[in-house]
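Assemble and predict.
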Amino acid sequence: MKRLDLIFSERELEQVLAALEKANAPGYTVMKHATGRGPERVITEDMEFTGFGSNAHVIVFCDQEVIEKIRENIRSILSYYGGVAYVSEATPL
Amino acid sequence: MKRLDLIFSERELEQVLAALEKANAPGYTVMKHATGRGPERVITEDMEFTGFGSNAHVIVFCDQEVIEKIRENIRSILSYYGGVAYVSEATPL
Amino acid sequence: MKRLDLIFSERELEQVLAALEKANAPGYTVMKHATGRGPERVITEDMEFTGFGSNAHVIVFCDQEVIEKIRENIRSILSYYGGVAYVSEATPL
Amino acid sequence: MESNLILQNVLSPPILFFFLGVIAVILRSDLEIPAPLPKLFSLYLLLAIGFKGGIELQKSGFTGQVIPTVGAAILMSLLIPLICFVILRLKFDVFNSAAIAAAYGSISAVTFITAESFLENQSIPFDGFMVAALALMESPAIIVGLLLVKLAGPIKRRPNAKPMKIGSILHESMLNGSVYLLLGSLLIGFLTATNNPAGVEKMHPFTGKLFYGAECFFLLDMGIVAAQRLPRLKKAGSFLVGFAVLMPIFNGVIGVFIAKALSLGPGNALLFVVLCASASYLAVPAAMRMTVPEAKSSYYISTTLGLTFPFNIVIGIPMYMTFVNKVIPATI
Amino acid sequence: MESNLILQNVLSPPILFFFLGVIAVILRSDLEIPAPLPKLFSLYLLLAIGFKGGIELQKSGFTGQVIPTVGAAILMSLLIPLICFVILRLKFDVFNSAAIAAAYGSISAVTFITAESFLENQSIPFDGFMVAALALMESPAIIVGLLLVKLAGPIKRRPNAKPMKIGSILHESMLNGSVYLLLGSLLIGFLTATNNPAGVEKMHPFTGKLFYGAECFFLLDMGIVAAQRLPRLKKAGSFLVGFAVLMPIFNGVIGVFIAKALSLGPGNALLFVVLCASASYLAVPAAMRMTVPEAKSSYYISTTLGLTFPFNIVIGIPMYMTFVNKVIPATI
Amino acid sequence: MESNLILQNVLSPPILFFFLGVIAVILRSDLEIPAPLPKLFSLYLLLAIGFKGGIELQKSGFTGQVIPTVGAAILMSLLIPLICFVILRLKFDVFNSAAIAAAYGSISAVTFITAESFLENQSIPFDGFMVAALALMESPAIIVGLLLVKLAGPIKRRPNAKPMKIGSILHESMLNGSVYLLLGSLLIGFLTATNNPAGVEKMHPFTGKLFYGAECFFLLDMGIVAAQRLPRLKKAGSFLVGFAVLMPIFNGVIGVFIAKALSLGPGNALLFVVLCASASYLAVPAAMRMTVPEAKSSYYISTTLGLTFPFNIVIGIPMYMTFVNKVIPATI
Ligand SMILES: Nc1ncnc2c1ncn2[C@@H]1O[C@H](COP(=O)(O)O)[C@@H](O)[C@H]1O
Ligand SMILES: Nc1ncnc2c1ncn2[C@@H]1O[C@H](COP(=O)(O)O)[C@@H](O)[C@H]1O
Ligand SMILES: Nc1ncnc2c1ncn2[C@@H]1O[C@H](COP(=O)(O)O)[C@@H](O)[C@H]1O
Ligand code: NA
Ligand code: NA
Ligand code: NA
């Protein structure tokens, strides 16, 4: 099994979750209120009240197949709005 | 070393931590306020005020041995209440 | 690519981020409000109001090179104040 | 039913803010009240309701209508789940039927305070001791729900050898966070009013004056949450949708006649009816999630929060008032 | 300019708490107001401003100066972004210019309430209907900003085939969480004042009495955030630094003359000027981040929050008051 | 000691809510007040205490008892850590001894306001300037603690070449978030009272009227936290348990005699004693965690929060009042 980590602005959360659903991801976990720094942008928690939002960290445990289906869609969102996506190995307990 | 990721409803947190302690886990990290969707259930942050709780994400870095000890206990909790558990490789920095 | 997971008290966050910047980490994600237990210390969310702070979980996706540069600095902080650091494999989506 | 009453009810700030929340979701505005802020308001409301109720209970003492009314309320919270269970079993298994039934036997504190605001608006008097009835209806409903599962259901083995014991049933029903805070604040209000009148005075700006505004803020969030729940209700099917609207009316009608039998004035009668008609989305779902995980939480939450709650605060309250006015002559 | 006015302004609790926040950052204190507490105060202030504005609007009705003043305010929120855009294009691309321009066409609610507190301090009367102008200046500025991008900019293909349609422009501009809450609360205040005077009374402790203290608390946080933003402004270069201070003054001066043309009294005139001079750090940045991700968010946030906002509340308001006093004779 | 006093103290809303929290943990209720809500109340209380103290300080001026009392308070916050250190060294190493000692030299703001409520309940007058003493006792205790480590302890090399410099000691002791907010609000209250009496009036609903209720809410949380800490105290051993109860009494007794020497009235005397007897769980632990990570945080937090704090607010305050009444004749 694979583990997919997606980190991007909360404002794109709905789009990303829709992409996950479309690829039939078996489930996902969302952690909001993440902050961080990418190559260009800095998002701090202090700005959260502005509605500007902080980042979301989405974890998906799924088969390679789902990864393949998801790839294009997620990539186009992240390359446009910013964010990172990494895949690693994971075995069910 | 191994990395164990557990995601389940906050309401089972005490039970899971007790299982970890029993298996002599060297430590653990708990992140509350996670939301997500599994095969059946959807848990959103909006419901948090109801006391219904959101999910907890627990990370444990430990030896294979601890994983073995933990397995049965955790599996029975998660299969009953829902939730996921995955193991991956990790090396101390 | 590597994935670095750092978990330590929020109070050292500034120091750790400075170390990451110095090592030219391409970016990082910070999740605050984590709680947990290490070999000695217990940090619960309930204590957060005291200014005592809870833990931060920092995720860095980077090359092995950055890991090498970071190692010594991070190790000395964590061994002094407590906390854990683990490295695993990750591939860009 | 006087549509005028509905209009007057709808044009009060709490209901208007509720609609503001609902419309935000419908129009896909990104307005949100992030966790744990709704929890702050929810804790505050429970604390304030309980504290004020305790003060009133001390004023009125345990005389006259207090004991019979509270007794009847507890009886209703035992009876209603049984009726609901029988109806729900037509469609659902024991676990789901028991969980939903428990929710309808219990109460919704926000529906109750909306009814109080409605009465104040109409200048209809009511007694503070009704809060005691509110506080004492949560636990029995949970107990009945769990007993139904224990008696009627094929209990799977639970992990960690935790079969459903009477002790843990009592624990879940009495020590659930919101039940505990409500009962505790009631007791504190009572003790303070007895021993420390200055303390009552000093609490008033917090528990009294601020209340109405905090209620509005919380209802804004409830509007958002209810509207988000509504689509999921569709999946639950038309049986449950019908149940979520008709059951409160049915329970309310029973309530009216019991209120008449108790010779309650119209104000107290409305509150009594609202207690019967409303369903829990706080204590009961939390308790059921823990003790009956076999039941689908989306069923009992979507019905109570997505449909019964909005129905009650918008249409139900003025409708029940009309019932009360028909059945109980206003001579107090 | 009477430096006395600045001193009086600075020695009021809201501004003092703002400085307390700024100094905390400068001295590297670990004082912080963790999320989502600032959001609580921000939501509260919008709700309270809107509600009180709605009540006042109902009192004054849509007669006399109301329509012309609100109309002029909307006009300014369309005009200012165009002026700003032309100036900003000297240095920045279409995306960044449009985003910053939209922010300056819009308003800052906290600057507005600081100006109201300033007027109350000076015992200068003003009308509640100015809040309606405030509420109606956010959306037009966003629309102009997005149209500028649509007309002047080379739109890249967006992911998920979501080109910028008029519909989505209107959506982003009208349904942004803070715009929506402000407008909705305005409407609720209006409806409540019309139909339910008792409701107005009961809301007062929450939306009225608590307001000043909550404003102070929020300004403490704004001081922290503004001071954290300031260093990033340096990277943006001296052009933007100059813009962030000179543009408000320029817009303010235009505002003074329009206020005179509208024959506004000094109180209303100051508020009108402050609406022109202030820049948005709530609705506009959020909308721009979604619809013009090509623009660097640090530009429009650091200028409005790190420089224009502090400038306006500390020096700007008394300075504009001096302008108003010079241009408009105080005979009301 | 008059057990009547204890009863009267216990039957006030703040203490009752504290017990409600304690009992919730003992009965294993799932009541919780999620982060960062306790932080909201903690920040609010510090801001309000400081602001009101500043106003009172401006009223009383720096005359009469103000300077000697504040001076004596600062002296106590230097002296107490030294006494504690000597006692603690019997059992603990330099690091742990210094950290715990610093906590007992410093103060607990919530204990202080509970004492104020107690006095109000008893209609015993006291002066607002005592808050200045409160605000000025935090930093010296931290400084003494750090100096003890520096002088008596074998300092390990710190990472990033950060040896403990006087500058960083001052930084940690003066700019800790809660010390800074308290001192800053004191200053703002003072400045506002001097220059802007209308501002004082407008802050009152927030900092004044709301205070008692917010105190109750926060004490509910403190009850939960204290009860969760208690079991960990057992691990710390009986020496520390004894210390956590006997040391406050000892410090309190010294305080009574100094209060007599200063000819304080019974109200001010009680507050002075409470400052001596209480221990910090806010500023000091945070500062120690940063600067003396060698000390076990569970030691200094469990003692101050799990035992000394509950002891002081429940039994200590009425006990110290009895001491005061014995030693100081009530003739004001
Ligand atoms: N190398 C990285 N490691 C971990 N998180 C990252 C990394 N790069 C970016 N991020 C996260 O992704 C967010 C968006 O980054 P960006 O793509 O620059 O907009 C940042 O705020 C970080 O939270
Ligand atoms: N495939 C998955 N990947 C990531 N998180 C998951 C996945 N499945 C379930 N979860 C998480 O586990 C929680 C419980 O799921 P469930 O087992 O359906 O009750 C969900 O709310 C998610 O947060
Ligand atoms: N084995 C572990 N697995 C996961 N998290 C850990 C582990 N050990 C320590 N931690 C985290 O690191 C923090 C600091 O631990 P310590 O090094 O004991 O101070 C703890 O509060 C945990 O959140
Ligand atoms: Na009911
Ligand atoms: Na403007
Ligand atoms: Na002390």
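The longest strand of chain B covers residues 28-37.
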